Amino acid sequence: MAGIFDLLHALDERAESAYAADGCVVIGIAGAAAAAVTGIADWSDTFGRPARLGIVHAASNTAALALYVASLALRKRKRPLATLVSFAGYGMVTLGAALGGHLVYGETQGVNHARADELPTDWIRLLPLAELMDGKPHRAKLHARDIVVVRQDETIFALLEGCAHLGGPLSKGTVDDCSITCPWHGSRFALDDGRVLEGPATVPQPIFETRVNAGYVEVRAFAKEAP
Ligand code: FES
Fold first, then answer.
1. DSSP 3-state assignment of 60?
2. pTM higher than 0.85, yes or no?
3. Which terminus of the chain has fewer CB atoms gathered within 10 Å of its CB, N or C?
């Protein structure tokens, strides 16, 4: 919007266009502080390549912020230069936005990592019941997806392996009190319905129906997504 009003001012030289452009820049700078706080919170949960991309994303946004602040300082005395600096800031913020989009859509950061689609609804034989130790999570393959199976007394629970928060391995987590805790950031899910008992996960972990048939544990996805 600042760019549009700056261009308008370059054409009509009306004071209102200049005020509007300056106001947009001020609002953008104020919004950047809030965006940085949420970005740092998201970034603190990333590892490896997404973490490195996050640093580049932050650097381009910081450069954009610096350019917009410089533009604001120049606006009263050197408006044409301020407009150019502002457009340079727009270029940097566009780069930052493209990287931010890639982090979400390409690197699946900040999204639900436990998609419950394409799960088999027919009973699938997994492993002999005797191999399941009480209270010890066991990782198993269900077609192309990994799941975690837990035996507690006579009940067998099965959940998707990758934690809904950021894909942490639930089979390496701890089982306690009818719940399983992710080893990465401590999200705790109820074993019986996958509901979130403690964050940072915000969506339930998909669960499976289980049964024991001829000494083997069998699982299948619920016909509808579990509540
Ligand atoms: S991956 Fe973050 S709590 Fe599981």
1. helix
2. no
3. C
